[in-house]
Amino acid sequence: MKIFTIILSIIALGLIIFNFTQVNFEEPFKGQSIIAIITIVASLCVIIMMAILRTSKRIEQKVKSQK
């Protein structure tokens, strides 16, 4: 599970970098720029969710080891 979350986070980071290059900063909310911004936000959400999942798994392991 740890490797899966790391791989997804790396893919999301790659999408953020790629889409950041696609944004037209003169008109960021027109045409393809808005799609790139939406994808950047979605990728950031994936990274946050993977961090939460890793943290919850760590907490779960600590609770199991205390029993």
Distance between the termini: 22 Å
Low-confidence stretches: none
Determine the fraction of residues in helical runs and give it as a percent range. over 70%
Going by helix content, strand content and strand pairing, the class is mainly alpha
Strand percentage, roughly? Answer: under 5%
Order of helices and strands: HH
pLDDT average, as an integer? 94
> How large is the radius of gyration?
16 Å
Give the overall shape: elongated
The main sheet comes to: none
What can you see in these coordinates?
With 67 residues, the chain is an all-alpha fold. It has two helices and no strands. The protein has helices at residues 2-22, 32-66. Helix 1 (2-22) packs antiparallel against helix 2.
Secondary structure topology:
Blueprint: H1 2-22, H2 32-66
What descriptors fit this protein?
single chain; 67 residues; mainly alpha; elongated
